[in-house]
Amino acid sequence: MNSVRIPYGHQSIDESDRRAVDEILRGDRLTQGPTIAAFEQAVADRVDADHAVAFTNATAALHGAASVAGLGPGDVVATSPLTFIASANCARYVGAVPVLTDIDLSTLNLDPRGVSTEVDGLVAVHYAGLPVDLTSLPARPRVVIEDAAQALGARTPDGPVGGCAHSDLTVFSFHPVKPITTGEGGLVTTNSDEMAEALRRFRNHGMVRRPEVDPWYYEIVDRGYNHRMTDLQAALGLSQLSRLDRFLSRRTEIAERYRYLLADAPVVLPPEAPAGSTHALHLYPIRVQNRRQVYDGMHASGIGVQVHYVPLHHHPVNSDLGYRPSDLPACETAYRELLSLPIFPGLTDEDQDFVVASLRSLL
Ligand SMILES: *Cc1c(COP(=O)(O)O)cnc(C)c1O
User: Fold this and answer.
1) Which residues make beta-bridge pairs with 257?
2) Residue 173 Cα, ligand 1 centroid: separation in angstroms?
3) What does each of the 363 residues of the chain score in pLDDT, given as a tens digit?
């Protein structure tokens, strides 16, 4: 197989990012310094949330969210089958059981109308960066967590994703292919003072400092972890966040260009955001009939198309959940045909033209 010249996603790092990280390297606090709080405040302001708590990655952040929301043994937590394993594992980590709700082919998100009224929790994944409509749930589960790993910058009619208009907590990822990057990184937003405090303890060993007892005194009040982001990462995140709007508008241009260039091609184009919402366009997942052939042909041309995702019930680790493919027919249909085309801020028009020409020659 040829090496990938045009990946499906890629970070955009510039001189200002390098300067921001270098400044931290020249200072005293590589971690547990003031840049974490500055990054958290900037994200909270951006998404209209009361609190933001940074983590080492979104997987740890989802674990923290599930824990502080009170999910635990005996709880059943719905999520989409068309997502990354972390969306379901956060339920497993706290002893709860995930259940899979089939997707709606018109959004590729879990169909909110299909979420059982019996579930205790919901991890609502905004697939590709398109917000799930949480207002069409038949009933609001006790706990609603938005897995917005792909959706920083998206909006719903009720405000930015992350504002938690219809959820308890929202989780973002800053992995290099995501809307902005900190290398590895994640963050939880919430409007609950108690959950924010619990998240800060969760990521820092369950520790509470009590200088009123003794200047050195601290207590471990609940089971925690070391899931702290570093100041190096937070500085990169702050610098990246200042360019989020530029990243989003370039992604929008690329998506519009695909839509125009592929208008008459025999492919199903990705769902668009409904009126009043905006799409973060993390992925550009088209559907093609001869997916394997197209995948191989594109890779032979150095184009790193990818399949998002191998459905959760296909993984051996989830065999205990007892799903057969026929239980989730819309997800199976999508999975047979899905292929993510390159979309990232640094993709040039020339490279996009090459992607489209290569794709057309394979259809
Ligand atoms: C990327 C991603 C995650 C995991 O994020 P990490 O920061 O890599 O841990 C979780 N859920 C979804 C939907 C993702 O796309």
Assistant:
1) none
2) 6
3) 568 999 999 999 999 999 999 999 999 999 999 999 999 999 999 999 999 999 999 999 999 999 999 999 999 999 999 999 999 999 999 999 999 999 999 999 999 999 999 999 999 999 999 999 999 999 999 999 999 999 999 999 999 999 999 999 999 999 999 999 999 999 999 999 999 999 999 999 999 999 999 999 999 999 999 999 999 999 999 999 999 999 999 999 999 999 999 999 999 999 999 999 999 999 999 999 999 999 999 999 999 999 999 999 999 999 999 999 899 999 999 999 999 999 999 999 999 999 999 999 999
User: Does the beta carbon of 127 sit less than 6 angstroms from any atom of ligand 1?
Assistant: no
Q: Of all protein residues, whose CA lies closest to atom 1 belonging to ligand 1? A: 149
Which single residue is written with the structure tokens 């994640």?
A: 186
Residues forming beta bridges with residue 170, ordered by sequence position: 146, 189
What Cα–Cα distance (Å) separates residue 309 from each residue in 128, 289, 339? 11, 16, 9
pTM: 0.98
Return the closest-CA partner of residue 130 out of 68, 82, 58. Answer: 82
Among protein residues, the one with the nearest Cα to ligand 1's atom 6 is 58
Look at residue 138 and give its three-state secondary structure.
Answer: coil
Ligand 1 geometric centre to CA of 84 (Å) = 6
Q: Is any atom of ligand 1 closer than 6 Å to the C-beta of 83?
A: yes
User: In angstroms, rounded to a whole number, what is the distance separating the alpha carbons of residues 114 and 145?
Assistant: 17
If you measure from the C-alpha of residue 266 to the centroid of ligand 1, how many angstroms do you get, rounded to a whole number?
Answer: 31
Which of 55, 175, 229, 308 is the pocket-test mutation for ligand 1 (most atoms within 8 Å of CB)? 175
| Calpha distance 352→350 (Å, rounded) | 5
Q: Is the CB of 59 under 6 A from ligand 1?
A: yes
Going by alpha carbons, the residue nearest to atom 14 of ligand 1 is 149
Three state DSSP letters for 43-97 = HHHHHCCCEEEEECCHHHHHHHHHHHCCCCCCCEEEECCCCCCHHHHHHHHCCCE
Say if residues 203 and 60 touch (Cβ distance below 8 Å): yes
CA distance 152 to 160: 8
**Which of 301, 300, 298, 302 minimizes the C-alpha distance to 339?**
298
Q: Cα(66) to centroid of ligand 1, in Å?
A: 15
